[in-house]
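How a chain folds remains the central question behind the approach discussed here. The record that follows shows the chain in one-letter code together with its fold in token form:
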Amino acid sequence: MHPPVWRRIKKSLMARNMAKISTPGAIRGTQDIFGEDQERFGHVVETFERVRRLYNFRRVEMPVFEATAVFARSLGETTDVVSKEMYTFDDRGGDSLTLRPEFTAGLVRAYLTNGWQQYAPIKLATHGPLFRYERPQKGRYRQFHQIDAEIIGAGEPQADVELLVMADQILRELGIGEGVTLQLNTLGDAASRESWRAALIQHFQAHKGDLSQESQDRLERNPLRILDSKEAQDRPIADAAPDIDAFLTDEAASFFDRVTSGLDAAGVAWTRNARLVRGLDYYRHTAFEFVTDRLGAQGTVLGGGRYDGLIENLGGSPTPAVGWAAGIERLAMLCEISGRDFGLDVIIAVEDDRALASATSAQARLRNAGISADMIATGSPRKRYDKAAKINAKVLISFQHDGDQARANIRSTPQSELQARVEALLNGISTV
């Protein structure tokens, strides 16, 4: 066969094979965050980081995976998260590992294994991705992200107040405080909770046949969770169940009073929700959720409570603790960013390649002064200015070359303080 003919056939076969290659799609329940979505996401994270510093919460970075026992012991073997939703696998050494489905258990493990007891009470904050195999829906993903704040080693009501006041400030500074309600309840101390639990079991047992199958299952292992059932057939029975107030010890009632008094003193609005619960036995005293009606039926945007019994479950000494978590995606959905400034400060158009060195120097000066700047220096020189003008920047600088000297044309509409700063920083580079 003639060589040129063979080369054409070979090229055609290669092209045909290339056409068969398909790009793998994103995994269901994950997301690629870009553009306005990323601006919203970043706004939540930046606000969280700024506010947690105001409250002296120390940032901590956590492993993405832990020994499976960390979550099984903390969340409970029978919970849906452990039994149905965790991403669990054996590593090459045969150890069972789990991608973290929440932060608290890992933070408690770190507190115990790193000797952080010496810093108690310690205020910790973190954020990052979490993983649960659940049905993806609006604002809920299998890889999702949370902000998280915990106080470990503080048994006083003031710790609860501190966390709630910080959460309230974060929501207000995100611009979503309006329309979000803080719902508050007490689960009492161990004695209060046990008495209430016994009364609830007695109540629900009397109506067991009328409960949904899910609530019948919960009656055996987690009766408190029937109180927040969303099943229509459960609601009349749950609404008729006894409240915890009749079972509170004097100490537990006093604790809750001091929490609510602290919130009142700090100017944080709240409402009592006597049906707000946490099912696991290690939860004590304060339980809370910040709730909105802007996200459909699943309206909780931030939630938490006191978990004084958890550290014992992970092998530590009895240690009080309280914390909360919030989904970044759900907070971001509520953020209005149209009026916020996420734009670029300066865009530079290099209209003559001979001016590139001067433009690069100018860009470095601006960035070193804390002014965001980008440059268009590729493609047709005649089209660079037009490309730059289409970018949403406060100041446009075009670099040309006049004789032996680069010249910078600085333009801003309207004239601004930023333009004056830019002109001062570029002193020494010929400007007009």
The chain has a mean pLDDT of 89. The domain at 35-189+249-334 is CATH 3.30.930.10 (BirA Bifunctional Protein; domain 2). Residues 78 and 221 are 8 Å apart (CA to CA). The first strand starts at residue 58 and ends at 59.
